Amino acid sequence: MDLQKHAQQPDTPPRSTELRASDADRDRIVELLHDAHAEGRLTADEHAERVEGVLTAKTLGELEGFIQDLPAAHERRAAPLSAPGRPAAGVFPVDPDDNVVAVFSAAARKGRWRTGRRIHAYAVFGSVEIDLSEALFDHQQVMIKAFSVFGSVEIRVPENVSLRGTGGGVLGAFEVDPQDSDDDNAPVIYVDGWAILGSVEARPKRGKLVKDILDRVQRTVDRSMRKHLGH
């Protein structure tokens, strides 16, 4: 009888802390730990230990445990975990649109080329160059996952896009010069990943602009003029 009664009861929904964590959730916590380390709230050893734990965490509750003693956790308590400069979950596909791989060699994407939403770059004892200064953007948001092991990944973007980075280095350098475009329609480039005994560098290429943005603005003006003249 008890078993029958139990079977008829509706399933209890899991608490939010018991929900499975996504890669985007882990990335947001890693970014908070990077900030805490930069502010001097965590030592290098504490930072490394927590990042390692975040990467293997399974639930949202486990992730919250790594930042519960940091001010950022309490500032964000009223809202779901999120961080400025991070894309919303599900914006990017799981699989990359393009892989740029250099193993004991060099590889590049530059010139007039069409970018996808997600690009993976791997430099293992080699060098990768990703130059977006003349690229065609089919999507407003682009994610570049860069991994450097005894190698280098160099990323260049136009001056009139937004650039944000959330990666890290292990005995290596992961450097992103952030910038925000004044144009709401401008592409946003997110650079993430790791530099292990290597380097990842992303910065604007001075003097280079995304001409497509100017073209879109001109087309919008043209449509408005035609609509106005039509009336």
Descriptive report:
The chain is α/β, with parallel strands linked by helices and 231 residues long. It is built from six helices and 13 strands. Strands 1, 4, 7, 9, 10 and 12 form a six-stranded parallel sheet that branches. Strands 2-5-8-13-11 form a five-stranded parallel sheet, with no helix packed on it. A two-stranded parallel ribbon has the order 3-6. The longest helix is centred in the C-terminal third of the chain and has 20 residues, at 211-230. The protein is globular.
Secondary-structure element sequence?
HHHHHEEEEEEEEEEEEEH
Instruction: Give the beta-strand count.
Output: 13
What percent of residues adopt helix (DSSP H or I)? 25-40%
Cα-based radius of gyration, to the nearest Å: 22 Å
Summary keywords:
231 residues, alpha/beta, six-stranded parallel sheet, five-stranded parallel sheet, 13 strands
How would you summarize what this structure contains?
By secondary structure, the protein is of the alpha/beta class. The protein has six helices and 13 strands. Residues 112-179 form the Cell wall-active antibiotics response LiaF-like C-terminal domain.
Topology, please?
Layout (H helix, E strand, L loop, with lengths): L1 H7 L14 H16 L5 H13 L3 H6 L5 H5 L22 E6 L2 E4 L4 E2 L2 E7 L2 E5 L4 E2 L3 E9 L2 E6 L4 E4 L2 E3 L2 E4 L11 E9 L2 E6 L6 H20 L1
Parallel strand pairs: 1-4, 2-5, 3-6, 4-7, 5-8, 7-12, 8-13, 9-12, 10-12, 11-13
Helix pairs in contact: 2-3
Protein name: DUF1707 domain-containing protein
Organism: Streptomyces werraensis
InterPro entries: DUF1707_SHOCT-like, LiaF-like_C
